[in-house]
Amino acid sequence: MGSQRRALAVVALGLASLLAGCAAPEPWVKPYERERLADPIMRLSRDALADKHREHIYDVRESARGATGVQGGGCGCN
Amino acid sequence: MVATSGSSIWMRRLRRALARRPHHLMRAGRALGVVGGVMAAGGAYAIDLPEDRADAMYHFYDGGGTRADGPALLIRKKVADRLSISGSYFIDSVSNASIDVVTTASPYKEKRTEYSLGADYVYRDAQVSLSGTTSDEPDYKANSVSLDVSQEVFGGMTTISLGASRGADHVGSRYEGMFDRAQHWRYRFGVTQILTPRWLMSANLEAISDNGYLGNPYRVAQVFGTLVQERYPRTRSSRALKLRAVGDIGQGEQRAALRAEYRYFWDNWEIKAHTLEVGYTRYFGAEWLGEAFVRYNTQKQALFYSDNAQSETLYVSRNKQLSDFNDVGIGAKATYSAGKIADKFDVKWNAQYQFMRFRYKNFTDIRTHGLYSFDANILELFVSATF
Question: Residue A30 is inside which H or E element, if any?
């Protein structure tokens, strides 16, 4: 029991000494470096209405559904 | 209702941030000290609302004996500093002579009408979206509400989103009227992360829970070569995980984006599916934008699926959507920017086409006893205006 506590103390001290050299990570891509990311071609969904049509077609014909990153549900699919 | 995803929130924010120059940030940093500098680069400003926009679309699907087409409209408008509302209208005119229908019943036509209303509210680095959808066809009525919240953190590099939807359906048939109900719950969680000045990625997880009548009153199963009414479980629990990455691979002034998406889906009917999509988008001059993409989906059958069951079981279905199959799609999209009209409306004309091929591994055409497959053509023509 005592040896377990000593081992834990050593691990805790070791971790503390490792973390002592670290600062909290800062955002590494500054707003003024995001010009290319702001272009419309970088959007995950550019045209909501066309994407909705596409998702409806997939939902009706494939079993997989969900996790598209948009609100869903409500289609009559039988 | 399709609402803006977390990723588009920070896209809007990026455009706003780009209006500010690096030296402005440095000046702010000097004036306010190190903490102030970090704040200026980080989350000291509110998110912009989605831009005002109107879309009018004609959509078309033709494949496997089913043809569906119709118009769709979407309009979104800011009504206050922090509030934007949206509405959409979607018509599906369906002419159904699919293999399920022609082998067991008569082809039919029907119309589905869907209305959606939504509201987006922004406060500092957060956005709250509420929407409601109602879908109506003669033998199926569906209503749903959704609530989503997203929050930017870590200097705008990370967006976290949480959401839930609740759906309630009335299920019927042309012969019996409305005879049963179904309910759906959806819970979703997503993270979008800027990786480098050129690359970002997102991860989305969604859990879906359904109960009630989940089958189709027109479809039949086959047991010992005899056609019988299909028997579905009344509950289903599904999970989906989707990973996406998109990057700008253009050189110099040229902008070109490469995107890759992968989704793994699994549920307690023992269906497992993998979906992969890769797309490439680039500008052709100042007015044209072109996109090409390929998509592949493969799935393993549900536990109770059988083309022709050789034993009596509690549940049995011959729904080809639950069988072993794969489908591939290849598509292209072109966008033409027509410029400003009436000094206010930024108009774009769009055309998108996709060819799909479905190949079933254990679903046969009972007329020929051969494995079934079909091709589909999908088209969207739409004009959009931002203002």
Answer: none
Instruction: Yes or no: say if B9 and B159 are a contact pair by the CB < 8 Å rule.
Output: yes
Q: Which amino acid is at B343?
A: D
Neighbours of A40 (CB within 10 A): 17
The total number of residues written for chain B in this structure: 387
Query: Tokens 């506590």, residue?
Result: A5
Residues of chain A with C-beta less than 8 angstroms from the C-beta of B194:
29, 34, 37
User: Contact at 8 Å (CB) between B205 and B240?
Assistant: yes
Phi, then psi, of B283 in degrees rounded to 5? -85, 145
Q: Which residues in chain B (213-252) have CB-CB distances under 8 A to chain A?
A: 215-217, 238-242, 244, 246, 248, 250
- Going by their DSSP bridges, the two strands B199-212 and B220-223 should be labelled as unpaired
Residue of B nearest to A54 (CA): B378
Domain positions in chain B are 219-387
pLDDT, one tens digit per residue, over B303-352 is 999 999 999 999 999 999 999 999 999 999 999 999 999 999 999 999 99
User: How far is Cα B360 from Cα B194, in angstroms, rounded to an integer?
Assistant: 39
Q: Name the pTM for this structure.
A: 0.85
The phi, psi pair for B323, rounded to 5°, reads -90, 180
Residues 45-64 of A with CB under 8 A from B: 45, 47-58, 60-64
From the list B319, B18, B216, the residue with the least C-alpha distance to A34 is: B18
What ipTM is given for this predicted complex?
0.88
User: The tokens of B379 are what?
Assistant: 């088209």
Report CA torsion sign: B282, A48, B170, B62.
Answer: negative
**Cβ distance of A62 and B15 shorter than 8 Å:** no
